[in-house]
Structures are given as C-alpha cells and as structure tokens.
C-alpha cells in the first residue's frame, strides 16, 4: 500500500496536513500549506509504487549478496558459477522502469558452494 503521506512529502516536503485512513478525500491542509490538487497526488502514485518496489528488491538482492560475500574474500577462489550468480544479482535492477517490471523479476538460483 502506498503511504499517502510519502506521496505528499515528495511533492512538498514542507507540507503540513492530516487525513483519515489513507483516504485522499479527507486531506486537511494545515498551517497555511497550499493544497496540492488530488490529480497531482494521484499522478505520483505509480512513481512511489515503483520506488518502494525497487527498495524491496534491492534489500533482498543485497541480502543475497551479503550471504555470499565471504566467498569473494581475497583468500578464496570463487567458482565461475558463483561469480555468475553474484553478477546476475547485481544486474537484477537493470532496465526496470515500472512496478510490474520489478514484480516480474526472477532471482537467479544460488549455485552450490
């Protein structure tokens, strides 16, 4: 779920507002904050969805890389399969432009060590 507050803060980081239960129709602008048109807020939803999906993807990818970092130490010889796996993990984010792209990502299979 997209946080309405996150979208508003992207548009106007200084905005002061409140709303009920993520309902865009209940926004109350506070302390002289210039209201942001609902259409402008809604236009940001796909961008924020994509950014949030990419954050999740990178977190999972980084965990998988961290799990194999010990194999990349200078006193270890990494197999070609593991090198390929780690490179495939680093390349996962290449060319992704929509949340659907991110949702369709297939993680590579970790080879045996």
Distance between the termini: 38 Å
Strand content of the residues, in percent?
under 5%
Low-confidence stretches: none
Q: Count the E strands.
A: 2
Question: How much helix is in the residues?
Answer: 40-55%
Counting helices, strands and paired strands, the structural category is mainly alpha
Count the domains.
1
Q: Order of strands across the biggest sheet?
A: 1-2
Plain-language structure description:
- The protein is mostly helical and 113 residues long.
- The chain has one domain.
- It is 50% helix and 4% strand.
- It has four helices and two strands.
- The chain has helices at 4-11, 38-68, 80-91, 99-103; strands at 17-18, 28-29.
- Strands 1-2 form a two-stranded antiparallel sheet.
- Helix 1 crosses helix 2.
- The longest helix is centred in the middle third of the chain and has 31 residues, at 38-68.
- The radius of gyration is 20 Å and the shape is elongated.
- It starts with a helix and ends in a 10-residue tail after the last helix.
Keyphrases for this structure?
elongated, 113 residues, mainly alpha
Give a short overview.
The protein is built from four helices and two strands; from the N terminus they run αββααα. With 113 residues, it is mainly alpha-helical.
